[in-house]
Write a structure and sequence with these properties.
By secondary structure, this protein is α+β, with helices and mostly antiparallel strands. Helices cover 43% and strands 26% of the residues. The chain is built from nine helices and eight strands. Strands 1, 2, 3, 4, 5, 6, 7 and 8 form an eight-stranded mixed β-sheet that branches.
């Protein structure tokens, strides 16, 4: 029963057999991928619902999203209201594939599961890969497993940046660099910017993943990626005049991409 509240993966990572073996401060350092997702404007949506309807909507949404995480060997670290924090301890490609499937599943969810008076749900997902400290926080009477470190902070920041860039799935350069050419995911990513992250002096390169979109949009973004990234490069290098010229030309040739 305790596995409904404490992930078995936490025990495995800490090399513990049963939950009573865990003590405050038990920890390991491990390379993982961290996924944060959040429902956009959920507070506004919830204002029009009763408490029962709110919990029903959330639980139905989670019942859709969670299998896409566990299917790629991820596990839920915690729920934060309508947000999900998930950990992937194997290859980073699985975290991205999971996010792609979450977005595809959400489209079906919006079409078939939502009540007619509830607007379609939109989510943002941010993923980063790297070293974390995985362990337990609290006291002997109240413990919680979690992961901490810059890797986690950047993943959370990327999820928040999905609002600014109006892209539902953003990954870091660390995650992008780990993707394998053979799975075609690299072709379905494009560089968006170099963004500041609170608490870090160095900026972080961020990438949009568009593998979840309809096939015609995917093909169009792949076809126009070089043109798009030239404009992005000019923006990053503060060549404003060139960036404006390239973006104007890009938008004229690619009306689908607003």
């Amino acid at each position: 029963a305790y596995q409904r509240f404490v992930p078995k993966e936490l025990l495995e990572n800490l090399n513990k057999q049963i939950i009573t073996e865990i003590s405050p401060g038990d920890h390991i350092q491990k390379d993982v991928s961290v996924l944060f997702s959040d429902i956009r404007s959920f507070t506004t949506i919830a204002e029009s619902l009763s408490a029962e309807e709110t919990f029903l909507l959330l639980n139905n949404y989670l019942a859709m999203a969670l299998p896409e995480i566990t299917a790629k060997n991820g596990y839920i670290d915690k729920f934060i209201g309508d947000a999900i924090m998930a950990i992937f301890t194997d290859h980073p490609v699985n975290s991205v594939l999971s996010a792609v499937q979450m977005l595809k599943a959400l489209e079906c969810f919006n079409e078939t599961k939502l009540s007619s008076h509830i607007e379609s749900l939109k989510i943002g997902i941010g993923i980063n890969s790297g070293p974390v400290i995985l362990g337990t926080l609290g006291t002997a009477n109240r413990l919680e497993g979690t992961v901490v470190g810059d890797t986690v902070n950047i993943a959370a920041r990327l999820e928040n940046l999905t609002k600014e860039y109006r892209c539902p799935l953003l990954i870091s350069e660390a995650t992008f660099g780990s993707l394998m050419q053979g799975d075609n995911l690299v072709d379905k990513c494009r560089k968006l910017d170099i963004a500041e992250v609170r608490g870090k002096s160095d900026k972080v390169a961020i990438y949009e993943v568009f593998a979840w979109e309809k096939s015609d949009i995917i093909e169009a973004k792949i076809f126009s990626k070089v043109e798009f990234e030239k404009a992005i490069s000019a923006k990053i290098n503060d060549d404003v005049e060139t960036a404006i010229r390239l973006f104007e030309a890009y938008c004229k040739n690619n009306l689908f991409d607003t």
